[in-house]
Write a structure and sequence with these properties.
The complex is a heterodimer of chains A (802) and B (291). With 802 residues, chain A is of the alpha+beta class. Chain A has 3 domains: 178 residues, Aldehyde Oxidoreductase, domain 4 (2-Layer Sandwich); 185 residues, Aldehyde Oxidoreductase, domain 3 (Alpha-Beta Complex); 335 residues, Aldehyde oxidase/xanthine dehydrogenase, molybdopterin binding domain (Aldehyde Oxidoreductase, domain 4, 2-Layer Sandwich). Chain A has 20 helices and 29 strands. In chain A, the strands form 7 sheets. Chain A has a 7-stranded mixed sheet with strand order 3-5-1-12-9-10-11. In chain A, helix 11 runs parallel beside helix 19, helix 15 runs parallel beside helix 16 and helix 18 packs across helix 19. Chain B folds into 3 domains: 50 residues, Uridine Diphospho-n-acetylenolpyruvylglucosamine Reductase, domain 2, CATH 3.30.43; 116 residues, Uridine Diphospho-n-acetylenolpyruvylglucosamine Reductase, domain 3 (2-Layer Sandwich), CATH 3.30.465.10; 107 residues, CO dehydrogenase flavoprotein, C-terminal domain (Enolase-like, domain 1, 2-Layer Sandwich). In chain B, helix 5 runs antiparallel to helix 8, helix 10 packs antiparallel against helix 11 and helix 11 packs across helix 12. In chain B, the strands form 4 sheets. In chain B, strands 4-5-10-6-7 form a 5-stranded antiparallel sheet. In chain B, strands 11-12-13-14 form a 4-stranded antiparallel sheet, with helices on both faces. In chain B, strands 1-3-2 form a 3-stranded parallel sheet, covered by helices on one side. Classes of the chains: A alpha+beta (802), B alpha+beta (291). The interface between A and B is medium-sized, with 29 and 24 residues. Bound molecules: flavin-adenine dinucleotide (FAD). Flavin-adenine dinucleotide binds next to strand 2, helix 7 and strand 10 of chain B.
């Protein structure tokens, strides 16, 4: 049986879709707004103990001795875990490049402030924290390296003594005839940039309840997991269990943005449970733990970029040199974020040759993890800033230089120098639309007037490509073992015609449960309310990956269409037998199996399902009485990277153009975002409200990264940011309510023409605001090339030209 | 992030509270008053404060009021900042104190946090510190020996430290009614709305025959305590209002500061510069209010 997945909403078996493409209300929301959704901290299991983790205050030290005897004696303490247990029971995390992983708790040395050195399970978190104060740890302090320059110095202390140096990866990618292109260019612009460390900060930190079954030697982990199947596999590898002996139950979680990939807490809770003879152990990471040593730090980058440009403004070559401070090892997916820009290295432009020098360095800062966008936000900040630098020098308008370098609609599918293939796009239409919305010409007039009054008003206009739907091949080029990213669902219709969709991922906030219901309801012509979407734990769920890489909306669409299609095929056979015709004569339309050309000859899907389950005697010979189907979708046509890392990695290429107007206060350095416009083309919008939510959320995080957020470290390796009063997330007053427009250029290669749309705004916003600030201040002869453009930082620059 | 163990007391009258504080002090028990908890709870949870006992003032109903008494606005210590924000009496008769209240944290924090707590906590970046200095407010404390009235310039001793004794309760704060012909201004620079300010300024002044008079300039967020800056006030007193003289006052204010606080948000130099700007801008705004 081959499945045919509808290429566009109008290809679905419904006269006109009632839900797909509409702003339907989210089925997730009633539970959320009434407080009934069960987050992990609400879970209480009988006999459950509570864990707290002792974390080192030193950035780099050898552990001489850990004495936990007093803690063990404290009434209420159930179990104490130290490095000795880890040595006995645990492996180095499997998700790192060879030689750069670490265990969930330090064994011989600590490499960053906040690294766990011991843990306690007790009758309450209070007692557990009291017990931590009784644990004595003796350290031999080692010199810390806190930036890549120090870390690469000839006699620098090594974080991982078995390695030759602190350099995790050092490689050059060259795509096309870079030397020739640069030699022939009329202008080559070169600039340095610094992107300071920021990261994912969901409202809810990570949390879990782990229970070790000492009889079956198996483990169950309930928790706020973004990618449950993957977490299960990782726990098996880390905790020495067969992969079918770990069951992960993902709970709805209060956001993740990549920040729920940090498994340390899970491994520690699991081993505490093992030590406590199988008592369930809850561990809820607190905010200080999250900020110091959770999975919330990403993108600590030093860039140098060169852009080769012809006299007329044609962009021909791009070189980017990136030194990325990965922090203490590469246990998370920090490495991957450095490779993701390969998927859209040259942005929206027909730049013919490019080069990427990539160096990943280990330092005594916290390890870095994935963050929404996964690497392109800093890359786009660099690329788009370079385009503006060229435009200013050539006396061109920022919109004009972009327009003339776009990949044209008839050039798709378009292979970029770094190897990825863009599926479709109409970049100039998007640009024109946002220019009209923003009244760009009038903005420029306003700017001229403001300048005569001595005000620093700036406009940023930035466009990006958002690679969507990642696959296994995207990251093998940086030494991270490839994992597949299948997405499976099961669609079941019961004897009364009610439909259930089973998925392998938990609620995270993006509305995919709603999407699943929309799709199934339209496919089978039923009310959305009658479709139930339910979560299955890793032991029973179909193969799945879950949220990540702007892929789940597309992937779940593919999986659901595939499963519905399989059911349709079965129903065709059954209804043909029942209505005494050939299966080819039957079509599914608006919930009915109809005999083509014979009005009135039809059966409702509920009748077919009911018959299938209730009257096996009426089924065609050999037909299984099973009105359900599973389907596992994965992106078609992905290939292996070549020696230069080139491959078809991301399936879709969405596109957006943002225009921002900002004013910089010349005396205080404070930036005010006055206006913000967005036009986004992510193909078919399956639920436009969800897409808008994704965009506005991405803008918020982009505003944070470019104006507010920064993990600051002192020169000795001490983190100076461990509270939300220091790590500043933008609030409702700081994030502009953007005006949004849409264009829909369907993807020719995805189910229903939708493209990944979860990350485009955070890809674009930092660059847009930074370009606007530079547009405001460049008449003074200064520019800012470091994020965030905090008031103090801008004030410092403005001081230079007072 | 859970507090270390402590004993908890919730007296129902001021007398009980004071007696309890005295008893605990005599028994060498380290006791701490808790009001709205908006500053103390985080410190307890981080185990940065670890008192043996908490004395909760929440059950004492007699300390929640905003009244006018003669020429003075009096506010009970347990009045919520939200009530102060919503008070039309405060808005009309002491607009500087009222305006400053709106800058303290967020609505949720003002709901729970008390007016007295903000004074007693003495955060260097607390808006009320500058208001107290600018208006010459008075704090009323009650202890085993009865009532004491402490003027603002004796109340704030240092970073998070006031003249309130361990056995005393702050019961009331008093601010003079703003005279009709007085211009005022309150401005601060925060990273985000509701954050503790990197620097802030409160100004009051009058115009007499076209010249500035009775100029008061107080700043906060930059030194260990909020402070009045007579050096800057002098620059403007007796002068016709104008951008140049205000800028000069700003420079004088910046120069008069102790070495400012430095943190991840603002260097000392930046804070100093912010004071110069804010003083200049507040003077202009206050003059505009005189008109
Ligand atoms: C997110 C956030 C933002 C904030 N932003 C600001 C801001 O911008 N500006 C600002 O000024 N503050 C800010 N705060 C602090 C807030 O204003 C606190 O409410 C206030 O500082 C303390 O008042 P409280 O009633 O909560 O006192 P508590 O936290 O209960 O107590 C604070 C201290 O005062 C003492 N105390 C309280 N009442 C009395 C009394 N009657 N007699 C003697 N001692 C007493 C306590 O012992 C304790 O030491 C912020 C707080 C938060 C959480």
């Amino acid at each position: 049986m081959t499945s045919t997945i509808p290429k566009l909403p109008q290809d679905m078996p419904v006269t006109s879709p009632r839900y797909v493409g509409k702003e339907v209300k989210r089925i997730e929301d009633p539970g959320l707004v009434t407080g009934r959704t069960e987050f992990i901290d609400n879970l209480k299991l009988p006999g459950m103990a509570h864990a707290a983790i002792l974390r080192t205050p030193h950035p780099h030290a050898r552990i001489i001795r850990v004495d936990a005897s007093a803690a063990e004696q404290l009434p209420g303490v159930v179990a104490v875990l130290t490095g000795e247990d880890i040595k006995r029971w645990c492996n180095v995390g499997a998700t790192s490049p060879e030689g750069w992983g670490s265990t969930p708790m330090a064994v011989e040395k600590v490499r960053f402030v906040g690294e766990p050195v011991a843990a306690v399970a007790a009758i309450s978190r209070y007692v557990a924290e009291d017990a931590l104060e009784l644990i004595e740890v003796e350290y031999e302090l080692l010199e810390a390296v806190t930036n890549p320059e120090e870390a690469q110095a000839p006699n620098a202390p090594k974080l991982f003594e078995h390695n030759a140096s602190n350099v995790i990866l050092d490689r050059n990618y060259t795509w096309g005839d870079v030397d020739r292109v640069f030699a022939e260019a009329d202008h080559v612009y070169t600039e340095k940039f610094r992107w300071n460390r920021v990261g994912a900060n969901p409202m809810e930190t990570s949390g879990c309840v782990c229970q070790w079954d000492v009889v079956n030697n198996s483990l169950t982990c309930y928790g706020s997991y973004q990618t449950p199947g993957f977490i299960a596999l990782g726990r098996a590898a880390s905790l020495n269990l067969p992969s079918n002996r770990v069951k992960v139950v993902a709970h709805p979680h209060g956001g993740s943005f990549g920040g729920k990939g940090g498994p340390r807490g899970t491994d520690i809770a699991a081993l505490l449970s093992r030590k406590a003879d199988g008592k369930p152990v809850k561990y809820i990471e607190d905010r200080v733990e999250y900020l110091l040593a959770g999975a919330g730090q990403s993108w600590d980058r030093y860039y140098q970029a060169s852009l080769a440009v012809k006299a007329d403004g044609t962009l021909v070559g791009l070189k980017v040199n990136l030194v990325d401070d990965q922090g203490a090892g590469a246990e998370g997916y920090g490495t991957i974020s450095a490779a993701k820009p390969l998927a859209a290295f040259t942005g929206c432009y027909t730049i013919e040759a490019a080069q990427y020098d990539l160096k990943l360095v280990a330092t005594n800062r916290a390890p870095t993890y994935p963050y929404r966008g996964y690497g392109p936000p800093p890359h786009n900040f660099v690329l788009e800033s370079m385009v503006d630098i060229a435009a200013r020098d050539l006396g061109m308008d920022a919109a004009q230089i972009r327009r003339m370098n776009y990949i044209a609609p008839d050039q798709f599918p378009y292979t970029i120098p770094s190897g990825n293939e863009y599926d479709s796009g109409r970049y100039e239409v998007v640009l024109d639309k946002v220019i009209a919305m923003a009244n760009y010409r009038e903005m420029r007039e306003l700017q001229v007037k403001a300048r005569t009054e001595g005000r620093l008003l700036g406009i940023g206009i930035v466009n990006t490509v958002e690679p969507g739907v990642f696959d296994w091949n995207a990251y093998s080029t940086v030494g991270v073992p490839g994992v597949g990213v299948p997405e499976g669902v099961k669609v079941s219709i019961d004897i009364l015609g009610q439909i259930t969709v089973t998925v392998g991922f938990a609620l995270e906030g993006q509305g995919q449960y709603t999407l699943a219901a929309q799709l199934v309801a339209d496919y089978f012509g039923v009310e959305m309310e009658s479709v139930r979407v339910t979560y299955a734990s890793t032991d029973i769920a179909p193969p799945h990956f879950g949220h990540g890489g702007s892929r789940l909306g597309v992937a779940i669409s593919g999986a659901i269409m595939g499963a519905c299609n399989k059911i349709e095929e079965k129903f065709r056979l059954v209804s043909a037998a029942l209505m005494q015709c050939e299966p080819e004569q039957i079509e599914l339309m608006d919930g009915h199996l109809r005999v083509k050309g014979m009005p009135g000859a039809e059966m409702h899907i509920a009748q077919v399902a009911g018959t299938m389950l209730g009257r096996s005697d009426l089924l065609p010979p050999g037909m299984e009485p099973c009105p359900e189907a599973s389907f596992v979708w994965t992106a078609p046509d992905r290939n292996e990277p070549d020696e230069q890392g080139r491959c078809k990695s991301y399936l879709t290429a969405a596109n957006a153009c943002h225009i921002a107007m900002v004013e910089v206060d010349r005396d205080t350095g404070v930036t005010d975002v006055l206006k913000y416009f967005i036009v986004d083309d992510c193909g078919t919008r399956l639920n436009p409200a969800t897409v808008e939510g994704q965009i506005q959320g991405g803008v918020a995080q982009g505003v944070g990264a470019v104006l507010y957020e920064e993990y600051v470290y002192a020169a000795d390796g001490q983190p100076l940011v461990s509270l939300f009063s220091d790590y500043l997330l933008p609030g409702i007053h700081e994030v502009p309510m953007t005006e949004k427009g849409a264009l829909e250029t369907p993807s020719p290669v995805t189910p229903l023409g939708a493209k990944g749309c979860g990350e485009g705004a955070i890809h674009t916003t930092p660059a847009t605001i930074m370009c606007a600030i530079n547009d405001a201040i460049h008449p003074l002869g200064i520019q800012i090339t470091e994020t965030p453009a905090s008031p103090n930082r801008l004030w410092q620059l403005l001081q230079e030209v007072r | 992030m859970k507090p270390a163990p402590f004993d908890y007391y919730a007296p129902e009258t001021l007398e009980q509270a004071v007696a309890l504080l005295e008893k605990l002090e005599n028994e060498d028990v380290d006791a701490k008053i808790i009001a709205g908890g908006q500053s103390l709870m985080p410190m307890l949870n981080l185990r940065m404060a670890r008192p043996d006992a908490l004395v909760d003032l929440g059950k004492i109903k007699t300390l929640d009021y905003i009244r006018q008494e003669n020429g003075t606005i009096v506010i009970g210590a347990m009045t919520s900042k939200r009530a102060a924000e919503d008070s039309t009496l405060l808005r009309d008769r002491q607009p500087l104190l009222h305006a400053a209240t709106g800058h303290i944290g967020h609505r949720q924090i003002r709901n729970q946090g008390t007016v007295g707590g903000s004074f007693a906590h003495a955060d260097p970046a607390a808006e009320y510190g500058a208001v107290a200095q600018a208006l010459g407010m008075e704090m009323v404390v009650v202890g085993p020996d009865g009532e004491r009235i402490i003027p603002a310039d004796e109340f704030y001793l240092s970073f998070l430290t006031t003249d309130i004794d361990a056995t005393e309760v702050l019961t009331e704060v008093r601010a003079p009614i703003m005279p009709d012909n007085t211009g005022w201004a309150f401005q601060e620079v925060c990273r985000r709305k509701g954050d503790l300010a990197m620097a802030g300024t409160a100004v009051t002044l009058r115009l007499e025959a076209g010249s500035c008079a009775e100029v008061v300039i107080a700043v906060f967020g930059v030194n260990a305590t909020a402070a009045r800056l007579p050096e800057a006030e002098q620059v403007v007193n007796g002068q016709a209002p104008g951008e140049a003289i205000f800028a000069q006052a700003g420079e004088a204010a910046a120069a008069a500061l102790d070495e400012p606080i430095a943190d991840v948000h603002a260097t000392a130099d930046y804070r100093r510069s912010l004071i110069a700007t804010l003083v200049k801008r507040c003077l202009a705004e206050a003059v505009e209010r005189c008109a």
